[in-house]
Amino acid sequence: MAEITTISVNGSPLSIPQGTVVAVAVAMTGESQFRRSVSGKPRGPLCGMGGCCECRVTIDGQPHQRSCITLCLEGMEVRTDG
What we know:
Layout (H helix, E strand, L loop, with lengths): L3 E6 L2 E6 L4 H7 L6 E2 L5 E2 L12 E4 L2 E5 L10 E3 L3
């Protein structure tokens, strides 16, 4: 059985299997809007490999982190612009 990691997404705790990427964890909360474009339009993961940068979130206070290529770590705090 997989080890469990607990993170916080927009202030709510979430327990997920170890090795889960942040984009999947955020999607598990039901959130589809990860950030807003400069014109205010909602954005979310597109390419899934870090190239498009549409999945950017704030992780542990660091903005503009690509969630699709970042593994969840115990105690991580993730914030979306949704």
